Amino acid sequence: MIFIYRFLQFLKYQLTASTKYYLHSPFVYQFYLNVLEGGVETELTPINLLRTKLRNDVREIEVADFGTAKSAVRIITELEKKVAVKEKYGLLLFRLVKHFQPKNILELGTNIGISSTYLAFGSPSAKIFSFEGSECLIEEAKKNHASLNISNTEFICGNFDETLSIFLQKKFLVDFVLFDGNHTKEATLKYFEQCLLHTNENSIFVFDDIYYSVEMTEAWKAIKSHPKITLSLDVYQFGICFFKKEKLAKENFVLRY
Question: Helices (H) and strands (E) in the chain — how many of each?
């Protein structure tokens, strides 16, 4: 049933998504040109080579899941192919942070560290804090980052319910948050509300898998209608939120990508 739901949502997206030729907002038009279209990103070659290597890595690791309180044996190649961000959307993350240059980045859901490689390459001067529940996954992420000479990422291991709240108690302002961990409505809204208290006008929130399930779509609808969100962009895989008050009207755009 979930596959039918996702298919119908994708079909709806294809029928309603706009291209740059139908955008009346100057901000969104520039976003389309610089982020969705962008250019040829030759600097991502090292990441592509790493991904090719990981696709042939048949090592098994035991991954803890705080959501189910169980552990499961996973194969690296499967994690790269089925769980890690797709190259298309990794490129989008890269262009997004390259264009806006956030200084403090939070990632909820490290996995084997692929998404954060795109973030690190896009904004080398940023400080990235990546949260993950499984220590084994963090160890793999550290290896992958080291192989690319990435040194601006701090990995934080533990249950998000504990580690995120402790981290945010430092009165830390966040410029960019990638929500890619617990894909439930309750958890997504909870982490959104927590991070919301630490934003500034230039903050950007990115929500992964907004059509993963009915409740994730419900979470996305609640988030984009929040009064603090002035602009939301739907590119199917990601929901992207902006907080700018002066330059943006409260709108939601579905953009073809």
Answer: 10, 10
